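Hey, I'm writing a tutorial for new members on how sequence and structure tokens pair up, and I'd like a real worked example in the thread rather than a made-up one. If someone can provide the structure for the chain below, I'll link this post from the tutorial.
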Amino acid sequence: MAMMRLTRLLNTSGKTIISWAKRAFIGLMVVVIVFFIGRVYESQRGPALHRWHTWTADEMTASEIDRATFADYQARETTIFRDLKSKVTDTLNDDEKTPINRFYSQSLVYPGKFQPDWNRSFVLLPQGKPRGVAVLLHGLTDSPYSVHYLALRYQQQGFVAVVPRLPGHGTAPGALTGVDREQWIATTRMAVREATRLAGNDVPLHIVGYSNGGALAMKYALDSLEDSSLRRPQQIILLSPMIGVTAFARFAGLAGLPAIFPAFARAAWLNVVPEFNPYKYNSFPVKAARQSWLLSQALQQQIVQEAQGKRLAALAPVLTFQSIMDSTVSTRAVVDSLYRYLPDNGSELVIFDINQAANLRALFRPTLYSAVNTLLPPAPRPYRTTVITNTDSGTNETVARTTLAGAQEETVTPLHIAWPQDMYSLSHIAVPFPLTDSLYGREPAEKNRYGISIGTISLRGETATLSVGLDTLMRVTSNPFFPWMMTRIQQHIDCSHQINVAACLRSE
């Protein structure tokens, strides 16, 4: 009798579980269908795709890059640019031949008319025997242009500067739909091989990365701790590094699912924007967001693994410049997922605070005033911290508030640099460019040198008339603290030839 009751109970429970499982499955399918329909609707509302969105480049695979020389890579690059011209530029419709379309050969912003074309990989050789080598890596949707100021500085200091164009970049945004993070990682290794070939193993190696390039720089440095065939960098310099990205990027692959049907190809893009920038894509594909998230996740996991294995003691000093406000990468991740694990090895974190004296102060979210204080853990810290902020809330003049590694006391140094009155913070884009940059600077040394001076754009009117979102036009694109930043990088270059690099950096 008891057995029969138990059997009935099990049967009833089983039916209940199956019933709930069916309901959960049906609910999940409803959510997926609604998401699919919503994504299709959203994507179809946007602008139509052009041939620069559908064209893809015949980039080398990761394994091909690992077997290639830098000359081989540049030869393939030449072929890719030739194909871009024949398949895109030479086939434009009349309505696509506009004065600020980067793919129209007669436009103001056509990259092929400028020398050098900063979309391509390049190497800068110093005069005389090299004193060191630097590999510099640009960001996602970006080009070698974003790191060319740093490359020139290294060249001036007697370093060989190797700047690869990462696969999928510098050509057309559609090229980013055909590449993955493994190709970018392999390109980093190839660039280090070329730097070593040009200057040998006996000179210091610096690896410099901006944004996505910062993630690649850290990835290479961590890989070199485990792989003896990879040359270890002596120093690592990061600008707005992609240690973590927004949570949405995690689900970017799902957002692109409708694109498996040709009719919904627009869903493969997070945004489709006119391409008026000669050295950066404005349109952004879903796959690129997904690859950036996968790279940052792998990087974070590797940092933890290396820390647990006590291998970070051999990591090179890390110098990072990061704005407290960054809508592209996570500033919090720079602190919590990287610097919290670093040893006391001469590393430094530089944070650019908001402009506490900005005219728009009343419109700020209250949490922004103390964002820096809540970001950093209490001193002492195993790394040096420098916060660039206002002298006080009533002036645009700025100071550097520095706390040395292992110390609690803060020193304050006037910078004699003022925030521009109408600038309330830096942006992700701004960090690697001076105010005088001809493309991005708010005070360009040569206005419209590249057909347009984006940093000078200041519009007033009705927003509905614009084909470009305000987020594109409002973001600051140049850095008023760029001269100070370069001075700080110069100090790191100067320490390269000291016997004890970490001790030299601590004394600066």
